[in-house]
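Bug #77: duplicate submission created two jobs. Keeping one. Sequence:
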Amino acid sequence: MTETQSITPAKALEMLLAGNRRFVTGEPEHPNQDAARRTETAPAQSPFAVLFGCSDSRLAAEIIFDQGLGDLFVVRTAGHVTGSEVLGSIEYGVSVLGCPLVVVLGHDSCGAVAATRAAVADGATVRGFVRDVVERVTPSVLASRAAGHTEDEQFIAEHVRHTVDLLLERSSALARAVDAGTTAVVGLSYRLEDGTAHLVTVRGIEGPVDAAA
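Kept job's structure:
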């Protein structure tokens, strides 16, 4: 099992983006998916990244980043909206499991963002607990509209940036880890058609980082 303590935030991001490149080119290695890995990870886990993404069925983290058992600590909600359960899960990944990287993963054609844009634009009614999702995405949509954005990709990027900022504002444990240089938080935007994950924002990694997988 990989010891996360020996992996820097920059190296963890490099590993993640390398896996996405393999997925995009149709040459995945399917690492850590055999019986030996299952046995190895049974006593304990040591993932190298927390992946906080949208629940969309087309956004299966271990597949699109070509990872396996014990590699990613995955948290998913519709529209990657943040609540106390999400914050607690991310803090567990960082503070207890020692993950050097937290990734916020958004994607194009996101239903949560589309529903929120419709609600903001024409007051479309959203029923049930889906309304809570829309309310939590609304600040991102309003900020994007205020900036004059019109394209779906721009709205998605703004929501990813807003989520990264929100995590760091609400979680003092995560903010301390970033300040200490032991963990970084990055935002990625995934394109459904070609499978590429593109960098939106980086917090806690110095120097140049590849903008796309």
